[in-house]
Protein 1
Amino acid sequence: MAIITNTDPSTLTKKDFVAEGDVKWCPGCGDYSILSSVQTVLPTLGIPKEKFAFISGIGCSSRFPYYMDTYGFHTIHGRALTVASGVKISNPDLSVWVVTGDGDGLSIGGNHTMHAIRRNMDLKILLFNNRIYGLTKGQYSPTSEQGKVTKTSLMGSIDRPLNPVSFAIASGATFVARTAAHNPKHLQETLRAAAAHKGTAFVEILQNCNIFNDGTFAKYLNKDTKEVENLFLEDGKPLLFDKDSKGIVLESGSHPKLTIEANDGTTNKFITHDPKAEDTTMAYLIGRLGIDEPSMPTVMGVIRSVNHVSYDAAVAQQEAAAIEKKGEGKLESLLFNSSTWTVSDEVKTKK
């Protein structure tokens, strides 16, 4: 990759982030919309071009760094978060973005994704969810629906699908959002919110694979169903949908449960969205809507956004404290301390 020269962030445009060469995704793939939206958002963030790095794993989504004219690293299957963590800790002034898929990030890479999230690494994680393994030609993935017939589930998948948002919230994510490739305006708004967050920003992006899983999210697009299938979150606003004719309330009882009620104009009975709440109960319940409870609308937008110290910032603080207490230190002193042995051909002696 060519060295990126210093650039004035105030002069950047979308074209500055478009790499040379052809984009090699299938015609009609939702990844094109995501790529265009990222390239549109980056020049608006006030960050110099050389301060961006895109890290990916393996999968269709993970070709992303090739198409960005930024620094990047196409790593190995499921290990994007480990490499990205090292990049961020070693270069704390970089804006590090991780691009992964539902298979790459939640199957072989699930362990690494969980720990990066719980540590609150200052990373922007874009998880493309098309409910299928696309690059390896259509096997069912951790997010595939029960009953999904694929090349590796000929009688239908018997797995219960994983909800990426629930996974992130349960892992302690400080920023969790859901958006969709077919809604560029909302996608770009969500990306800007994620970019502004200090700490792990986990963004699930619903994305169509028109070759191996075409139409998996069609109900969110269909003109006859999209009004009742999407609920767009707004901070401080009640959870209303279907042209505000319905809303979400908390059902009374021993276990918290969300249900739908008609809007009779008494909007104070509906749940008011508060992404800044430290308690994760409501965020978890909201994140389950639609995906885990098909009779309910699926929420789109920022589900949770709270401020905690990021792991990389804590590492820097610890490093500064150690230097203040013991000085800069020398590598030679570390390598040749009192526990070092010298091995010769004749005798082993301890220094």
Protein 2
Amino acid sequence: MTQALIVGLITALVWFVEKMGGTPMVNRPLVISTLIGAGLGDLQTGIIIGASLELVFMGAIQVGAAVPPDVLVGASLGTAFAIISGKGAAVALTLALPIALLAQSVKVLIFIVRSWFMDYAVKLAEEAKVKQMYWLNMFGLFLQCLMYFVVVFVALLFGSTAVDSFVKSIPEVIMNGLTVAGNLLPAVGFALLLQPMMNKKNFLYFLLGFLMIAYGKMPILAVTLLGVVLAFVVVFDMKPAANDSNSSDGTSHNQEDESEDLFDA
């Protein structure tokens, strides 16, 4: 029960900070898994699982009407079950995605409940009752934090023993297969991330990074830093040059037009 309480409070607190702090991205697996690992007394495993799940859920970002899996609950419960069962990242990668999909359905129900207060919010806005509008928004935030706490707490309180028994009953051959599949999931996460943004220009950068790691044997940190440098060069150095050339071309055209006007006169 203590472990369920710790994980539930960490999950709810992280969501509260995420919304009140202006979306600092603390609800990502890299952060939440590390915090849960520290709370359960296994910081190293939490960091490893967080890094693995971050690769899987890297493209899971809510944009517009898109409803991605709930990364916060998936990473929280996946990390907690993995540490409690002692099976590490293999179990976390296997359980995180289905848990995240289920949690997203529960969150949609909370959104439906919160939509019931829209008419009251409009009435408060028409009457310029700012303080009441603030507390109405805070009530919606607390309601969602409570949802996260209850879902995680109940799942761990009643599910940890069942998950632990289930994991121990899995044959070694199947467990090895799950480990291999878990190692493939980061590649799937990268593929989902690259799918909407890959084009002929971006493919060259992807190919460059692949060649640097596969054949140049460069560490990932070095390739990442080089990518940051290239991004700054492309955004801040190449575009002004293009604008300058356009402006210079525009100036020359204007001068030619003025000379032609004078000549016609």
